[in-house]
Please model this.
Amino acid sequence: MDSLGTWPRPVPADDRDFDVQVMRRLRTAPGAHGAPDRPSLGERLGTSLLLVVPVLTALAVVLLWQQWSRSGSVLFLALIAVVLVATALWWTARLKRAFTTAQGRLGARLAHVVEHGVGVVREITLEPVAEDAQTAGSTADTAESTAGDAPTSGGRVRARLELSVTPVRGDRFSTSVEALYDADAALLLEAGSHGPVRFLRDDPEGTTVIDTRLSEEQVAQIYRGAALN
Model:
């Protein structure tokens, strides 16, 4: 593998099924030390304050406004401004902290659920994708084509790729994935092409998909990790 991601990029797939599986695993995934990673009592109370403090602030503003309407004192208007500014600053800082904590916890749990690796194509099967009923009828009797027989007249092609996957961690395994390609891109598929894949740790052969969400830096990290595995 002398270059990164040499197979053509597939048309972005609907990964909701994969994401649903990830969410199911996350509910039972262990934390960094093997135990269920639950928010502490302090974190839960702090998150609850994100809802409680605005309600209390609104109540205080209403009371101060009523006092101002009765007395006309500028002091109450100043207090309203102070309360609003202080609440806004506190709420913004607390929300950022909550998001940072949640992202860290999610990242730690994902590391125990989702794995990445480099998939190398061993066999390819291509099949035209019908875009309307007429095309579907005309291609219903069309046999699956190989890489050399890929359609060249535009449209999209469904590719079934038999892969040998070298994960960043763990043992190498074989699996098959399906992906949608533009017809011109499908012509570039060949045995030996490779690229990044992701899968669930507890079922790698049954959950592998081509990863289309990674940056070039992330792809490079996966290749380095797979090479060191």
